[in-house]
Amino acid sequence: MPDSTATTLDPTAWTCPAPLRDQPRIVMGHGGGGTLSAELVQHVFAPAFGGEALAQLGDAAALSLGGVRLAFSTDSFVVRPLFFPGGSIGDLAVDGTVNDLAMSGAKAAYLSCGFILEEGVEVETVSRVAEALGAAARAAGVEVATGDTKVVEAGHGDGIFVNTAGIGLIPAGVDLRPQRVVPGDVVIVSGAIGAHGVAIMSVREGLEFGVEIVSDCAPLGGLVEAMLAVTPDLHVLRDPTRGGLAASLNEIAAAAGTGVVITEREVPVPPAVSNACAVLGLDPFYVANEGKLVAFVPRAHADAVLEAMRAHPLGAEARIIGEAVADHPGMVVARTGLGGTRVVDMPLGEQLPRIC
Amino acid sequence: MPDSTATTLDPTAWTCPAPLRDQPRIVMGHGGGGTLSAELVQHVFAPAFGGEALAQLGDAAALSLGGVRLAFSTDSFVVRPLFFPGGSIGDLAVDGTVNDLAMSGAKAAYLSCGFILEEGVEVETVSRVAEALGAAARAAGVEVATGDTKVVEAGHGDGIFVNTAGIGLIPAGVDLRPQRVVPGDVVIVSGAIGAHGVAIMSVREGLEFGVEIVSDCAPLGGLVEAMLAVTPDLHVLRDPTRGGLAASLNEIAAAAGTGVVITEREVPVPPAVSNACAVLGLDPFYVANEGKLVAFVPRAHADAVLEAMRAHPLGAEARIIGEAVADHPGMVVARTGLGGTRVVDMPLGEQLPRIC
């Protein structure tokens, strides 16, 4: 690691690892929430669909309908296995979409739920997923209002895929988007990172790390509500799912046109996750979370917001990890434990496929 | 065909063809929109999810949010092949959801769009689907506001699956649901039935019937708007997709607690569809449509509504095909060309899998 400092880094020296936009076929990384996913959206979906809301490219779209401000978001879930320590595809299907809505400040009100089942899957398994989904919805205070089921022939699907879409009201005065970030904003993470991806990986591969690593899967609506009660003037929230904290910070930096500097040792990583990542060759900054958020908050409100977060069970380990800076716009830099810095790149794809 | 009359039929003599709710594994019919689909919803999803909106079991949920009345609906699309005469999975993904919203009287405003791609599918194919979806959205006057993409390994999906969810405003004074149907209501179909399912089947199986049969895939929002301009007091609308006209009429009869009598020869079926169905052993009443609706309208408004429908390009061939009756509640009966009657059962599954 060269002993450079953040301000001497040259952003133009950073290039996309490979010109993959010319790739003729879909690869796993196109679903990974990194550069390949972004390219697919920018070069294929956005031009085809048009539309202003989609162009915002947030976790949820902020819309106006009948005079009210709505958040609207969707996610499909293809996680393997269907059940894992700390949750299931049913929990993810609720929390993933509810959290996307929460990141726009909205309290989720209603979910749609579409199942694509593979012929031959046990009805009992479908029931268990549905029950987990229903229980997660009740825990998140959201109602499953409408649904659909399709079946594909054996060998043309993979057990159970679930899609949810969600709608919720955005409170008056709340306007969360990366374009509002300014240098000096404080970066807060709501708790320890990396557990979800490692939990999935360990059960999938039959790995044991001495202690069971449990997914952090949880609905963040209540935590966001507590933060907005301090001030509606938060600048942006993201839940670092696919692509992890690194992808979320890079997306915000790119859209905000600011740099971001974080201090590595301030980012909480559970020792078990850290050890597992070392064994697996993963960087915890790139591992998916399903119950964490990262917030960019005006410096004047940072202490009060942090206090409110710590008073909430899902924010008890919240910490300030860095700040937005005027230097190196669009780039995320980490101060390492050795006093140096390293660039935290946007991931190309996802280290761990099908983790949500 | 016994020369019975509708009024001599004994509804209690009709039973579900098989006690399939005890089936331990998912079969194709669970996605067919018939009895098996209904059983899955009633015995698995509805108890697990709870919720009042879902219990309505309409094509779209009618919700209240922030003081406005919203319709919210979702469908997943797994049609094979992706492109067929008259449309594509992209067209279906828009029209299917837009039409579900229209059946609650709502004009679709925003769509979400979730893709599940199989590793190895050509980016060019994804682009063509996205372009078709975008064009269909513009034609239907709806904006794709938010999206998501997941990728599964080759052999664990089938090219491209699409889910859309949609939201729209329900106009004041409109309350469309089968419980409002009363004996004497007139049953109107907006045009000829059966084209979509037969178009898919013919291209999938490489069949030729002398003339190309083209899917009727179309957005019905404008037609519904024209009908509601005559009177907001329509009782119920359904778009007869999976399970065809037979499933829609049976669902309405069951929920309304009335009987339904239709006159077979009044139901428009294009000769090419009729011929193809004869060859394939299909009943056009059970074949899916993607651009038709069936309406139950108070008798006093029937002529005016029919006239308004015929003035719209998508309702030019609209016809009165029957009525709701007090006899044989929950049962649909067709008067045959020979002067007899036959029971039009709820289908068990779907004759043609993966037609949407």
Short description:
Chains A, B: InterPro entries: HypE (IPR011854), PurM-like_C_dom (IPR010918), PurM-like_C_sf (IPR036676), PurM-like_N (IPR016188), PurM-like_N_sf (IPR036921). The structure is a homodimer of 356-residue chains. Chain A is of the alpha+beta class and 356 residues long.
Structure description:
2 copies of one chain form a homodimer. Helix content of chain A is 30%, strand content 23%. By secondary structure, chain A is an alpha+beta fold. The first copy, chain A, folds into 3 domains: 18-52, no CATH class; 60-169, 2-Layer Sandwich (60s Ribosomal Protein L30, Chain: A), CATH 3.30.1330.10; 175-343, PurM-like C-terminal domain (Phosphoribosyl-aminoimidazole Synthetase, Chain A, domain 2, Alpha-Beta Complex), CATH 3.90.650. A 7-stranded mixed beta sheet of chain A has the order 9-11-8-12-10-13-14. A 5-stranded mixed beta sheet of chain A has the order 1-2-7-5-6. A two-stranded antiparallel ribbon of chain A has the order 3-4. In chain A, a hairpin with a 2-residue loop joins β3 (83-84) and β4 (87-88). In chain A, α3 packs parallel to α4 and α6 crosses α9 (299-310). Chain A is globular. The two termini of chain A are 33 Å apart. The model of chain A is unreliable at 1-20 (pLDDT under 50). Chains A and B meet through α1, α2, β1, β2 and β5 of A and α1, α2, β1, β2 and β5 of B.
